[in-house]
Every structure is written in structure tokens, then in C-alpha cells.
Amino acid sequence: MDEEQRFLREAVSLARSNMENGGCPFGAVVVKDGEVIATGVNEMGRTGDPTSHAELNALRAAAKALQSLRLEGCAVYASGQPCPMCLAAMRMAGITEIAYAHSNAQAEPYGLSTSAIYGNWPSRSRNRPCAFAMYVLKRKMRCRFMTNGRNGNRQS
Ligand SMILES: [Zn+2]
To answer: Which residues surround ligand 1, an ion (CB under 5 A)?
Structure first.
């Protein structure tokens, strides 16, 4: 079994365990230098948090493990095709290598596809000018969450 298959099987195994424990069948692992550094499962039901997707939980654990908000050089292996929220979070953290075991098309018959979200943004979403937002942008404020002194947010 090649490395990619091994990591995908681990993500699927996490998804299966989560499902057997009453959760949704989604799992993800974050890999760096050929090693799993973090895992995550969907915990929406347990936490009541609609953003508690497997990939996001794995990213949170990876950031904690590496003490960095930047996850360049990491790869994410997920049981299912990442939703737009998770995909955006992975890209914003610098992850460019993503693999998944089941596509949205394969998940569709089970009601687990997120493909509709890609082209269906909220109709009430709109840009509303805000003076404070412009002040923050102009100041180019940067977030420093981590204790290691590195600038954690290069998006600003
Ligand atoms: Zn997601």
C-alpha cells in the first residue's frame, strides 16, 4: 500500500469510528514529512458547532502541534471531498496538497455531498462599508496569536 492510500485509509478509519460513536462519517489527517501530525473528526453533533468539520478540527490540531498558524508543507487526507469552508481554511493556512477518499458525487446518494454549496452563496450576503473595517485595513494590523513570536497571520 502506498503512502497516500495509507493516509486515506486512516482518514476513512477515523470517519468510521466517529460514525460508530454517533458522529458524522468524516475524518481527516494532517501529514508533514511523511508523518501524521494531527487528526480530526466531524464533531458538529457533539459540540453543536456547525464549523466542527473533520478537516477544520485536524487543522486546529496541526496548528497546535506545530505552534504555527501557517501549515505550508503539510498535506490533508480526508475521508470525503472537502466542503468550501474547509477548502478555504486549508488554502488560507498554506496547504496545497489535499486528497480525499470519496467525492461529492459518490456521497450524493447518502445526502453527504456539499457540492451545492460551491455555487450557492447566501443571497443576503453583501458588502456593507464600515469605517472601522477600513481603519483596520489601513493600519495593516497583524495578529500575533502564537507565543513563539512568529507572525502568525500573513494574510493581512
Ligand atoms: Zn468542511
So the answer is: 53, 83, 85-86
